[in-house]
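Cross-posting from the chemistry board since nobody answered there.

I work mostly on the small-molecule side, so proteins are not my area. We synthesized NAP and want a rough idea of how it might sit in this target. Sequence and SMILES are below. Is it possible to get a predicted 3D structure of the two together?
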Amino acid sequence: MAKYPLVAVVAMAKNRVIGDGKKLLWHIPDELKRTKMRTMGRPLIMGRQTFDSIGCALPGRANIVLTRRQDWQAEGVEVVHTIEDALTTAEAWIDAETEREKEIIIFGGAEIYRLFLPMLRAIDATLIEATYPSNNATHFPESDWGRWTEDPAYPSTRTEAQGTTPAYRYVRYVPSIQPRQ
Ligand SMILES: NC(=O)c1ccc[n+]([C@@H]2O[C@H](COP(=O)([O-])OP(=O)(O)OC[C@H]3O[C@@H](n4cnc5c(N)ncnc54)[C@H](OP(=O)(O)O)[C@@H]3O)[C@@H](O)[C@H]2O)c1
């Protein structure tokens, strides 16, 4: 049971590709800026491989990294080894200062999205209107998409393709049935 809502923030291609296991497959500066704004002041729960792909702790947010390695550590990171510890750490970080946003961001990658999927209150997705090779790629987990519905109240802006940057749009999916928390 999480004390605060859990929201996944993800950018994914049409075929649900989110990266190649080491990095993203696109470079969309405006999307990165938006993700920064969307996650600022909130705790992020991410997998160790996503942390490695970013390479450093993101400022203005709690960087909570799940790993099974008992000896793993990195500067600016809160290391956790279980889902329960990840949630407790995120909640404690929010509660430590009154102005912090009362929302926990599930920041990826695929293994971490999969772990938290049943608990999500929403998926804030950037849908990239392109398909990337699936072989050896990392995908957003299979979901019963019938369980998710687009939130019509969410401002779903679309950006046209420009040069090598594909078109993309922002969508919020919410479960038709409320998740267990
Ligand atoms: N497009 C997007 O929005 C987005 C967002 C995030 C990431 N990505 C991409 O996704 C890829 C990485 O995703 P990924 O699925 O390979 O890795 P990941 O989910 O970032 O991290 C996996 C790691 O998390 C740890 N872990 C997983 N389950 C655990 C559990 N139950 N308990 C404790 N630790 C656990 C393990 O770390 P140890 O091996 O250290 O034990 C595991 O290797 C990269 O390409 C990245 O760029 C894309």
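Reply from a structural biologist on the board:
Welcome over. Reading the output above for you: The first helix runs from residue 29 to 39. The mean pLDDT is 94. Happy to explain the token format if needed.
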